[in-house]
Amino acid sequence: MIPFIILGMPRTGSTFLAASLAQNQDIKVFGEIFHPLESERKNSHYVSKDLNGNTIYYPGGYYDAIKFLYNYIWNDENSKYKAVGFKLFAQRVECKGTEKLFWRLKEEIKDLHIICIERKNLLDVFVSIKKAEQSKIWTIYRHEVDKLETYRKSITPIKVEPEVLKNFFYSYKEVYRFYSDFFKDLPFIKVFYENLVNDLEEFRKIFDFLGVEPIEVDPVLVKQNVQPHEEFILNFKELKAYFQGTEYEVFFNRERGAKQLFQMSTMKNEFIIKGYTFIDASNIPWDQRPKTSTNKIVVLKPYNMLMWYKNFFNSKNVLNIMELGIAEGGSAIALSLLLNPKKFVTVDIKPEDQNIRDLIKNLGLQDKIKLYFNTSQSDAAKISKIIKDEFSNELIDLVIDDASHLFEQSLASFEIIFPYLKPGKFYVIEDWGWLHNLRLRHYKPAKEGHPSLTQLAFLLIMAFASDPKLINKIIFVNPSLLVVQKGEKEVNPESFSLRDYIKINNFDCIPFLSDNFRKYLKMI
């Protein structure tokens, strides 16, 4: 177990960081266990409970702080985690029993890792503190978005004395200088809040630092402070002039709220990509799902899946993308914004939808995204013609099958399109594990007894084992995502059949196969 501390100051993103790290099953995060107020220690954002359901918090008094950490935080019960830590702010270590805590942590805790989170713009921090003090609301989680209206209604513009603000800036700078100097001999990583919200790939560095496998982080907090500072601070221009020519000038000059790549909206099922709001309808029943319009982007991929696409493919130079399944058009738009391909071709069996075409035109993406409605994913002649027309002599870098999720149709699509995939590039099959997800037991294919995509996954495994030059790698990301990386072998698109590449020495060695599946394989 790696012991770690999240060092920060109020309103610098420590709660956002802790909430994100806590999503990793190999990490356990506690809150501000040494906050001077017992009520805050008990109700900290990340208070954890022991196996008996008792809340873990520092009782204060004469209980030695280091002894408490070993008994309740870095103990045998938590040794199943690879990293365990808590939040700590320098100006809030005032409990009895915490005397010389920083010195003792440094000297007595073996292999202590320090994560220091800072915010680049300290004016943002100051304003955030003042608004939280006025509203008495310090954090809003996605499931608490109703608080947002209360928060905003409680905000009243203020006038700030220049010297007060100057002292604030100085005190924060001094604390972070202390952190860097005092812990310089320990494993230490500094992260900036602005970098984390602009590119969640930044979390990979922290996961690597803590020695755990990286995950796709799903931000759970709603951004509260969106009002321009000029509207909240009555004498903003006076302050800007006062700090001109000082090291703090930059806090007033740069544009606030630089566009975030990902940002949670104020609605539970919304998120923002590069300034565009998407409605996540992935968990809404089919008959209740909203429709895309010229001012509303509906997407059926959840936020964390889009994050996975961004993280996995952003560095893999996927210029030509083909997706099976247009649905409401949100996937093509989101992935085009995230991956910036040269061309994104997508097909669907659904009838023509002019709203989706108009929306893509309004977004200026009509030259990048090409839509083909009334097209079955298993129509070999039509799919092949689309590929030749759209990609000319170029091969495809990424194929995404998010269409029927049925075995026969998905196998047909694979056999049609895989030959047009560039060697070393990727074919993704979504929702391949629907048969085994109890949450999807009412899914129409499951209720009607359609052959599942598990069979396609098994075929791909057998083809990989039989001929690694055909399939270089198979990655089972999770029950919703399966990735096939094409090998170096050239295949003929006119005659490619997956079963031609599967070798089986003895069918008796796989007795669990269904009769239909066995019949398919015996045609080998």
UniProtKB/TrEMBL annotation:
<protein>
    <recommendedName>
        <fullName>Rhamnosyl O-methyltransferase</fullName>
    </recommendedName>
</protein>
<dbReference type="Pfam" id="PF13469">
    <property type="entry name" value="Sulfotransfer_3"/>
</dbReference>
<dbReference type="InterPro" id="IPR027417">
    <property type="entry name" value="P-loop_NTPase"/>
</dbReference>
<dbReference type="InterPro" id="IPR029063">
    <property type="entry name" value="SAM-dependent_MTases_sf"/>
</dbReference>
<dbReference type="Pfam" id="PF13578">
    <property type="entry name" value="Methyltransf_24"/>
</dbReference>
